[in-house]
Amino acid sequence: MTLALETTTGLTVQLRLSDDWFEVCGLDRMIPGRGVAALLPDGRQAAVFTDRAGRLYAIDNRDPFTGAAVLSRGLTGTHRGRPFVASPLLKQRFDLETGRCLDDDTVHVETYEVKAA
Asked: What is the spatial order of strands in the sheet that 93-95 belongs to?
């Protein structure tokens, strides 16, 4: 579903954690192509993104190659129709839907179910 910016007021971005939803921020605070880092209740971080079509994605914010919590600061794009974020450190690309590293098939990051409600 694509949401026009003017219809996002009052909606929040939420991640599924176990059996409950965790509120990250207001949807109107998201900028297409830019990430937001969210501190989760267990101390981990998630990187949340929206694209120009209004689709939401959430992955682990930790770069598995360096251990740094930086994926929310990465550059977004598409490769063969798949949305990705490139780590700002070593530039490995992670599929935003599956968490798979596009540059090393043996590496992946966790993904989260995400919604606007």
From this structure: 75-79, 82-86, 93-95
Amino acid making up residue 104: D
DSSP 94: E
pTM above 0.70, yes or no: yes
Averaged pLDDT, groups of 10, the chain, 117 residues long? 57 96 96 97 97 95 98 96 96 98 97 97
42 contacts: CB under 8 Å, gap ≥ 6: none
Two tokens at 77? 């794009």
Q: From residue 83, how far is each of 7, 50, 53, 77, 104 by CA, in Å?
A: 24, 10, 12, 6, 16
Query: How far is 83 from 66, CA to CA, in rounded Å?
Result: 22
